[in-house]
Amino acid sequence: MGNSCCNATTFSEQEKKELLLKGVSVYYLKYVFLQEVQDSGLDVGNATVYDLEDLRSGDHGLIRRKGENIICPRDGNLGASYVDAIVNTTADTPYTSRANIMLSYCWSYKIREIVETLASKCETDALNTKQAFVWICCLCNNQHRISDSDVPFDEFYSIFHSTVTGVGRVWSMMTPWDNPHYLKRVWCVFELFVSNTEDEVEAEIIMPRDQEEAMIDSLEDINKLLDVLSKTS
After folding, report:
1. What is the pTM of this model?
2. I want to staple 15 with a disulfide (CB 3.0 to 4.6 A). Which of 11, 75, 90, 191 is the partner?
3. What distances in angstroms separate CA 141 from CA 97, 132, 138, 225, one per listed residue?
C-alpha cells in the first residue's frame, strides 16, 4: 500500500537524471515484489503486468498504489513511481540503485515468469541478484503521469534513448521462443532496434529457462526451426 505523504525535496538537474535511471534489484523482485503480488490477492503464478496495473482504470492497481501518497522526487507533485516509493531498509543491501540492466519486455508477460527469467539470467552470468538493478518500465516510469495524459512519441523516445544509453545494457525478453509476443509489438521491436544500434550498449536476448530448452530441442527438427524463423523474419 502507499506510504504517508511526505514533503518535496529539491534536486539538481543531475540528481533528477540519476532518478530516471534508478532500478530495482532482482533480489527485491524475487523476494519482496512477488510476495506483494500474492498479498494483493492476485494469482502470482499467472498474473500479468496488465493485471497488476490497468492504466485505463481510475482505480489504482498494485503499482500506482505503492506511491499514490508520496511526493514524486522528479517533479514535486503527488504520486510517485513504484521504484521511488521503495524504502531501502539496509545500507548494505539496498533494494534500489542506479540501474545496470534495462529490461525490454511485454506487459502481457506473466510477472513471475519475468522475475524468474531475470534471476535465471543472473545465475547464468554469475551476477549477484542483490547487485543486479533492473530498470523495468512498469516500476520505474511514473505510471501516475503516464495514466494522466498522452505522452508525445518524441518525448517518449528522448526518455527511452537516455535510459538505454545511461544504463548501457539491455536484456530483451522473448517468450514463447517459437512465437514471441515481443516481435508483435511495434514498441518492443523499436526498443530492440535502438539497443542493437547504439555502440555503447550491450544487448542480449533472454528467455525463460523452459523456452531456452525448447529452442535447443528444436535444433533436432530443422523443418520446425526453419518454419519458426520464416514467421519471425
Report:
1. 0.87
2. 11
3. 15, 18, 6, 37
